[in-house]
Amino acid sequence: MDSTIVLFLLQDGITNGAVYALLGFALVLVFTITRVIFIPQGEFVAFGGLTYAALRAGNVPNTVPLLMIFGVLALLAGLWARRKSWSTAITVRDIALTVLLPALVWALALALGNTPRPAAVDVLLTIAIVAPMGPYLYRIAFEPLVEASVLTLFIAAIAVHLGMTALGLAFFGPEGLRAPPLLAGSMTLGPLLITGQSMAVYITVLVLIVALWLLFGFTLSGKALRATAINRAGARLVGIATEQAGRIAFGLAAILGAISGILIVPTTTLYYDSGFLVGMKGFVAAIVGGLASYPLTGLAALAIGTAEAFAAFHASAYKEVIVFALVMPVLLWRSLGAAQSHDEEE
Amino acid sequence: MLPRPLAAVLLVLLAALPLFGVFPSFWVTLANNIGLAALIAMGLVLLTGVGGMTSFGQAAFVGFGGYTTALLTTAWGISPWLSLFASLAVTGVMALILGLVTVRLAGHYLPLGTLAWGISLYYLFGKVDFLGRHDGIGGIPAPSVFGISLIDPRAMYPVIWGAVSLSAWATINLLNSRSGRAIRALRGHGEMARSFGVDKSRFKLLVFVYAALLAGLSGWLYAHVQRAVNPTPFGVVPGMEYLFMAVLGGAGQVGGAILGAGLVIVLKDVLQRVTPQLFGPDLQIEAVVFGAIILATLQFARDGLWPRLAGILLQPKAPLQPVDAAPLPKRAASPPTPGPLLALDGVTKKFGGLVAVNNVSFGVGRGEIVALIGPNGAGKSTTFDLVTGVQALTSGRVSFDGASLANATPNIVAARGIGRTFQHTKLVADMTLLENVAIGAHQRGSANALSSILRLDRAEEARLLAEAQRQIVRVGLGQHTATHAGNLALGQQRIAEIARALALDPRLLLLDEPAAGLRHFEKVALAELLRQLRAEGMTILLVEHDMGFVMGLVDRIVVLDFGVKIAEGKPEAIRSDPAVIEAYLGGVE
Hints:
The complex is a heterodimer of chains A (346) and B (589).
Chain A: H1 3-34, H2 41-56, H3 63-81, H4 88-112, H5 119-130, H6 133-142, H7 150-172, E1 186-189, E2 192-195, H8 196-218, H9 220-230, H10 232-237, H11 242-264, H12 275-288, H13 294-315, H14 319-325, H15 327-337
Antiparallel strand pairs in A: 1-2
Helix pairs in contact in A: 1-8, 1-9, 1-11, 1-12, 1-13, 2-5, 2-7, 2-11, 2-12, 3-4, 3-6, 5-11, 6-11, 8-9, 9-11, 12-13, 13-14
Chain B: H1 4-16, H2 25-50, H3 58-75, H4 80-102, H5 109-127, E1 137-138, E2 144-145, E3 148-149, H6 153-175, H7 178-194, H8 200-226, E4 228-229, H9 236-249, H10 254-279, H11 285-300, H12 306-313, E5 342-351, E6 354-364, E7 369-373, H13 380-388, E8 395-400, E9 403-404, H14 410-415, E10 418-420, H15 433-440, H16 449-453, H17 458-474, H18 490-502, E11 508-512, H19 520-535, E12 539-543, H20 547-551, E13 556-561, E14 564-569, H21 571-575, H22 578-585
Parallel strand pairs in B: 7-12, 7-13, 10-11, 11-12
Antiparallel strand pairs in B: 1-4, 2-3, 5-6, 5-8, 8-9, 13-14
């Protein structure tokens, strides 16, 4: 193995790792705010990638009707939750957010049809399609369980994962999709050949990190999210609507998932169920960060991407076996550090 | 409502139906599949429902069982009945290795860990050459009995359901034993169990391996029913489904596992046959429906469906009753050592820069009641933790009956004969008072899990329960023996904790704020009980807030303030001690 290969593998690993980092951030975000270990994060990746690929090919993606289904279910879940305290104002607002919004997005997708358009339009439309699924999902599956234990929420997340994978198959079919690169061309930097696609990944991830930093550090809703993450009861006492915080967290997670999908789909063919493994690697990173630290999660994600690239080169058949087996020592290390009170929770 | 024995007879008659030819063979196959899944779900009942460890990786153990027999019977031509032992051995060893790491994972890291090795092992099964990679292994022979081949699903049916029945019997036996009580205390009461000598990690590992063995047995049966294995049924998605069966049925009870497995298998089968006709071949609606049902179960029936169904159909289970049995051996009386029974000498505990307990010395003499009092933050609870082994000393010495208690863990402290209660009562809510108190006697029994499964422990079990009953009567809760601990009033719970500590046959009782939250008449009864125990020769150290309660009861009082001992003496002297008055009421200006 010469230095060119090492450099190539490193670059490959960092590109993949950058995407895992985004997913890891989303998982930390969701866990700290809602205590949900969000296994279905990977489905947003698959939905995002497949939606973008379909849009690029000039088709109306099947996530559009799927979004409508999620919206209607969220509306019903809201009505059920408020069955004893009817409020016309809230119901009207809910209908606007859960039915009109998907309808609007649907109309937009139909109107665009197969008109040629810049990739940026498709990126934005993809986010508009996938992002609302996050809050809808929270409304349907997790808001009713808001007081439940972490383990109960975890089991709920697994149920959602299975359901969403099946919906993915129903709406996308078993065939995979791939999209053209986000940025064409390539550039050389010393011995390195950097493709436009890799550049697009690096730039996007850096921009998103800065955006998240600005959101949490300098905006009121970002600070409210942080407050909810640190102390839920305390946040409620000072007037922060923690359900709202949960929906925002899921919305952000869906956006990060969709963007990850868009970044992956030009280099890898995505199938309806591809998201799970990608998401799980984000998970491994988030666990290294203790489901709490963003910088640690980011570093771990880069390490996982690199480890995976080298594992693929040396023992490609055993890539997944190795990556997931490496999780056990990390979990053990995390458990030893965790407070003893952990298992007294239930 | 049906009496339980009648229900059992009906069940057996129902179970015999598929043996007859009129029963459609398609239904026999379905019943076989339910049995295979029920075995795995039963392991999860113990692991998750009772032991509190959520596993998504059980399918991997099914894989170990299935692949082992597949390999041995095809490549080496070994008889399936012999390879059964190999299947169980391989599964057991793998479970032991994975379990040693997994049971040490804290909180939600544990299910994440099972997911991780579940994925890893699934890919491993699909990559290894001698396991046939993704194609797996085919041509597995059917087992035969007296020359009759069990190739027909109808012939395998009694084998599968025989295995389910035996496993259910074994699991129920295990749960209703000394080991079972320790296992039932694992979830949420680990600290309590430890202070009665229960080795937490050992029992967690035991449950983990037991659940894996049931899965391995199911894998062996599966391989010989299908007569082919490949990685697909051993992946994480099936692993998740098994957990859902346990959650849906009710993760705490054996009946729940069978109910959950039945519902899920039948539902999947119906949906798989109906939906293609309605929606076309691509729509696998069953996973969506399945996910929705699980979410609904979590929202509306978190204990699963079995407790509700059993509540409607069956007469309630008769609570466990003690029988008369010979008393357990008492702790050997050691020759009296000079000095007090418990002695603290210069005990200090620092948390970083904070000195919580600073150079505290005092003793508790035999047959004495001593109270440790002081305002909030005085270091009483920390001192208590230092004696019970929950926290380690920074410096100083604690000795019990002349021998040091340095570095003693709660198990060892219990073994030395120190029984304790907890400030916030720690009783297992869904166990009866009798079973809770029997946990106190854990160290006085020795029956292991295997003897419990085979019911060889019944003589010792009777003595343990009789001892628990004696202590319950001793503290005056005799009419509540069969009450679930969760239904006792707070005052009764505090007394019950004392009974549990007494079941240890202690030489010293440590009571952590026994009167907190009690009403006046309950305090009077508690004081009366403690006086009675002293009259019987018991030594008692109690931490207490309630001055009135302490004053009329104890022989001596030790007062702490800001981690330092400020006074020690008889109640009358303490009452007028200026330093104590200042600590409690503030200084006189």
